[in-house]
Design goal:
Layout: E1 4-10, H1 15-24, E2 31-38, H2 45-51, E3 55-58, H3 67-80, E4 85-88, H4 97-102, E5 107-111, H5 123-129, E6 134-141, E7 151-158, H6 165-188
Parallel strand pairs: 1-2, 1-4, 2-3, 4-5
Antiparallel strand pairs: 5-6, 6-7
Helix pairs in contact: 1-6, 5-6
The structure holds 5-O-phosphono-beta-D-ribofuranosylamine.
Residues 10, 12-17, 89-90, 110-112, 173, 176 line the site of 5-O-phosphono-beta-D-ribofuranosylamine.
Amino acid sequence: MTRKRVAILISGRGSNMSALIEAAEAPDYPAEIVGVFSNRAAAPGLAIAASHGIATAVLAQSRFPSRDMFEDVMTQTLESWDVDIVCLAGFMRILGVDFVNHWAGRMINIHPSLLPLYKGLNTHALALADGATTHGCTVHFVTPGLDEGVLILQAQVPVLPGDTPEILADRVLVQEHRIYPEALRLLASGQISVSS
Ligand code: GRF
């Protein structure tokens, strides 16, 4: 089995990154995590990745004159790792069209809502404000429209009396950690694909 080479893009905690790293440590998993990229030097996930012996890179967009130049260097970094698949895991920057198109069909994201509901930020507060009785998370292909690509997997959780955005986020996060490795497994093993 040839394992797909995967880079993970993070900006912070990196709990989804950790779930992917742990899944990929199984010998029969069809992907290996070869690098973790962060746009924030202070992202706690960087140290976790390094503790697993995974290459890390940090580039702050503010050090570049334009987003395009930042993203060109990001692509160079990913290609230096010979990456097949890119996983966004709490990467808090909106990506430009050229970058997204370069990785079309090879880049996926985890989003904490049942897309197409609640694109963007503050998904848990929005679900509560709506009186939703069900909430959840989605893994999807990344396309230029924010949180708009083809869906790969979703998981639902109940919204319970007394939930705060934080309590609900924790309940959703458990499911994120379950479906993201499963979605990457499907993509890396060729069981799903999109054509452009
Ligand atoms: C997760 O809720 C994910 O769905 C969203 O950003 C958060 C990242 O958390 N895109 P973590 O860094 O993976 O812990």
